[in-house]
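queue> pop job 88
queue> type: inverse folding (structure -> sequence)
queue> payload:
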């Protein structure tokens, strides 16, 4: 998800959670194409009480406040610069939910599995179910994010370095996924994201929507798409709750490191390298080169941390106040 590094500070106590057994079923696509194709699944996580308003308020109180991403955005799908970061201050979880219901806010709780024990158990359960549903799948660098967002909110056209799957819990959102071909995203742009030269957002032309793979997600649905595929998301006219799994597989890690090396070759030597995805000699050499370059810190990464531009106020749910 875009602009992941914006947040604030307060320590709270985690809530208890009783492990359950989830059901995950592939409904569209070929599981053997995981990571290279758009796949649809059904799940039953949306039936759990941990995702009602009381459960979400408890999660927001338990999650480290300094890591909570609070964002707002405009309505124009092209105007990604309207994506702004804010402060939650010392609002309670219930106050934050009231703001989501009343305003145009996107709350991003990245890596909830690293900070809230209930979500660490949930992540193990979800990744276990995913690996059971996809033959031979092995995942690592696991990140379970929780997205709580206002009616009609959106995430702009962007791409991610790792693999991503989006699990819908409450509300309805439309996910549009675009091909990785140069007509939608140039190799240099993918490299820029992987090298962390730029934010994840990309220039967007609404005419591309006619060629996008479009999926309306309702509670109990999950979608996963090819690694690095550009995508954008729009909420329906209701509060949305989704779970975002970001992770790597051996193949995904190879691809990311090949792209990393390609970026260095293009920028430093003027080459126009191709992306190798099979573990052939060229890909393995690029993988090794990327690891060396990272260890030596040859490439300077940019954090792209947004400066907070507004704050929320419990007395005016959904209103954005100046700092």
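queue> result:
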């Amino acid at each position: 998800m875009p602009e992941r590094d914006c947040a604030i500070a307060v320590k709270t106590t985690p809530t208890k959670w009783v492990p359950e057994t989830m059901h995950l079923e592939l409904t569209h696509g070929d599981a053997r194409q995981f990571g290279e194709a758009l796949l649809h699944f059904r799940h039953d996580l949306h039936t759990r009480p941990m995702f009602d308003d009381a459960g979400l308020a408890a999660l927001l109180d338990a999650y480290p406040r300094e890591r909570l991403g609070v964002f707002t955005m405009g309505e124009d799908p092209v105007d990604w610069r309207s994506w702004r970061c804010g402060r939650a201050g010392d609002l309670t979880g219930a106050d934050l939910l009231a703001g989501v219901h009343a305003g145009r806010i996107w709350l991003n709780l990245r890596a909830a599995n690293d900070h809230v024990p209930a979500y660490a158990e949930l992540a193990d359960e979800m990744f276990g179910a995913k690996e059971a549903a996809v033959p031979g799948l092995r995942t690592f660098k696991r990140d379970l994010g929780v997205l709580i967002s206002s009616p009609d909110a959106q995430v702009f056209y962007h791409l991610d370095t790792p693999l991503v799957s989006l699990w819908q819990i409450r509300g309805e959102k439309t996910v549009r996924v675009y091909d990785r071909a140069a007509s939608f995203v140039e190799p240099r742009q993918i490299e820029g994201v992987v090298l962390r030269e730029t934010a994840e957002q990309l220039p967007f032309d609404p005419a591309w929507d006619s060629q996008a793979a479009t999926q309306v997600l309702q509670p109990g649905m999950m979608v996963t798409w090819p690694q690095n595929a550009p995508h954008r998301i729009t909420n329906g006219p209701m509060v949305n709750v989704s779970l975002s799994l970001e992770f790597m597989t051996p193949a995904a890690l190879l691809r990311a490191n090949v792209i990393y090396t390609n970026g260095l070759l293009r920028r430093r030597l003027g080459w126009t390298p191709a992306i190798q995805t099979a573990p052939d000699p060229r890909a393995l050499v690029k993988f090794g080169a990327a690891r060396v370059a990272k260890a030596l810190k040859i490439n300077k990464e940019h954090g792209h941390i947004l400066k907070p531009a507004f704050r929320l106020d419990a007395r005016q749910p959904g209103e954005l106040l100046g700092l």
